[in-house]
Design goal:
Blueprint: H1 2-34, E1 38-40, E2 46-49, E3 55-58, H2 65-72, H3 77-86, E4 92-96, H4 102-111, E5 116-120, H5 124-136, E6 143-146, E7 149-150, E8 155-162, E9 170-171, E10 182-190, E11 202-205, H6 211-216, E12 228-233, H7 235-238, H8 244-253, E13 257-261, E14 267-270, H9 272-275, E15 281-286
Parallel strand pairs: 4-5, 4-11, 5-6, 7-10, 11-12
Antiparallel strand pairs: 1-2, 2-3, 8-9, 8-10, 12-15, 13-14, 13-15
Length: 299
């Protein structure tokens, strides 16, 4: 009887161990599929795996974009979906307001070895993390990172940053703050037309209202009849730096048409006059019709 009880316990323990190992295996598969593994490297840097498979350096003190990437492994998935359909292999891309490089690495993968990405980030701390991510993901040969602000004229600008709210960095036009630990730094400004680029096929802008100035400094690049621009659009922020009727009229006069990116990734056509007061969204501009495949419900 004693030997029978011993044998029973052995079978029971073996069975429970197999169940436990299988559960752990399943958890590991689920975690790998979610791609949200996080590596803390100290108070100034951490590493997170995105759902795309890329590894990205983030700031553990940032309660904005870094926190979202650490927690979810993605950012603005509807805009991400649209951007990746507008960028094609061999394209030459310009990005202003690259931040930590979430879109930078995604577009670098998309353009392939025959394309290029020129990424501008005025915040030197974020630009440093972005360079490390470009190196880690082996995109050095196709990505150039510049810690400069894009504008309509070369020179120096005051740039407002916040360690806890990295997504709100902007060139200062009034005395304002974007949250705790706000800092104003002096940065170099450049025109996109002066970067020595032969052409641009796609421009992505997220510059907290400086988009009119940036595009004014890219008149030569905008002459490409096939160029597509994707930009954050906030009339409230933009009107601090430009006349909205004049800015929209200038774009429409060059033949650009406008589409608002919905949170389903659908594109809603917009008339030029509707753009003057449009706020809180991202927009696609193109001289040619733009079509986007529907976004899958599951991401």
């Amino acid at each position: 009887m004693k030997r029978l009880r011993t044998a029973y316990r052995g079978v029971r323990d073996f069975t429970l161990a197999r169940k436990s190992n299988y559960a752990a295996f399943r958890r590991g598969l689920r975690q790998a599929a979610e791609g949200t593994r996080y590596f803390y490297l100290g108070p100034d840097a951490a590493l997170t795996r995105l759902k795309s498979g890329h590894l990205l350096y983030v700031d553990p003190q940032d309660e904005d974009i870094s926190a979202h990437l650490i927690g979810h492994g993605h950012w603005e998935r509807w805009i991400h979906h649209v951007v990746l359909q507008l960028v094609h292999p061999g394209h030459h891309v310009v990005e202003v307001g690259a931040n930590l490089g979430y879109y930078t690495v995604a577009m670098a993968r998309r353009v392939g070895s025959d394309g290029s990405v020129t990424a501008l980030e005025a915040n030197p701390r974020l630009a440093g993390l972005l360079r490390r991510s470009v190196d880690l993901n082996a995109y050095n040969g196709r990505v150039r990172v510049l810690d400069k602000a894009a504008a309509d004229a070369p020179g120096r600008l005051s740039f407002v940053t916040s360690r806890r709210h990295s997504g709100g960095g902007h060139t200062r036009v009034v005395e304002s703050a974007i949250g705790a630990e706000t800092e104003v730094i002096d940065v170099e400004s450049v025109r996109l037309d002066d970067l020595g680029l032969a052409r641009a096929d796609f421009i992505r802008l997220d510059a907290e209202g400086s988009e009119p100035l940036i595009l004014r400094g890219a008149t030569r690049l905008l002459q490409n009849p096939d160029i597509v621009v994707c930009l954050e659009w906030s009339a409230i922020q933009m009107q601090c730096r430009a006349s909205m009727p004049e800015f929209v009229g200038w774009l429409a006069g060059q033949g650009f048409r406008f589409w608002k990116i919905e949170e389903t990734a659908a594109l809603t056509p917009m008339e030029a006059h509707q753009m003057i007061d449009l706020n809180g969204c991202d927009v696609v501009m193109s001289r040619r019709p733009v079509k986007i495949r529907p976004m899958r419900a599951a991401y």
